[in-house]
Amino acid sequence: MIEVLFLLIFWEAVVIVILLFKTPFRKLLILTLDRLKRARGPLVLNTAAASLVALLLSGVYGIINIQKRQIHDDGHVHLNPTDQLLMANHLLQTTLIGAVLFLAVIIDRLHHCMRELRIRRKNLVVMKRLEATKALEEERDKLKVEIIQLESDLNSKAKDVDVAEANVTALRKQFQGFLLEYQRVLEENHNLRKKLQVLDRRLSHSVSKKNM
């Protein structure tokens, strides 16, 4: 029994060391402990723990009985060699069982902390992704608003360009009308000059005839 308890303490110490330090075996050990806590694993572990507690209480009860049996009237404890051997055996057994239970509790707490840490890391990664997605969505919405504003400005500029082009077309037509009017006035002026020249000639000719 004592050899089994020493072996259990050794392997529990190995498990604790693996859990404390980041090694390739830690992830595999955590997965193994996860599987042990599923299905019938907790029942088996609780049964083993109850058996160890029963052995611990039995050892403590044996130590108390030995001490009661050997108490004399003077209040001192006098143990014979057989009782001393039994006492040492019970003390060693109870100490080892207590150590096994204590290390088992440490392993359970370490595994729980590792699992919580892993869950929190996953949640943190998910939160970061959600924040990044939210930031991208906000940036997308902002860009949509800017695109709508730019399209509105572009439409306004296009309307301004259309109005300007219409004004240019109207001015061109007005200029062409003024040009035609100017050419007509020039032509009328030219015709009036010709008529004036003809009239001058006639007047000069008639005056010269009168003088003769």
TrEMBL record:
Record field: transmembrane: 6-22, 43-64, 91-111
Membrane topology qualifier: Multi-pass membrane protein
UniProt feature coiled coil, ranges: 133-202
Recorded superkingdom: Eukaryota
Localization per Swiss-Prot or TrEMBL: Endoplasmic reticulum membrane
UniProt record, GO biological process: endoplasmic reticulum to Golgi vesicle-mediated transport; intracellular protein transport; protein localization to endoplasmic reticulum exit site
Assigned GO CC terms: endoplasmic reticulum membrane
Location (main, coarse): endoplasmic reticulum
InterPro entries given in the database record: BAP29/BAP31
Keyword Protein transport belongs to the record: yes
UniProtKB keywords: Apoptosis, Coiled coil, Endoplasmic reticulum, ER-Golgi transport, Membrane, Protein transport, Transmembrane, Transmembrane helix, Transport
Family in the record: Belongs to the BCAP29/BCAP31 family.
Function, in words: May play a role in anterograde transport of membrane proteins from the endoplasmic reticulum to the Golgi.
Protein name as catalogued: Endoplasmic reticulum transmembrane protein
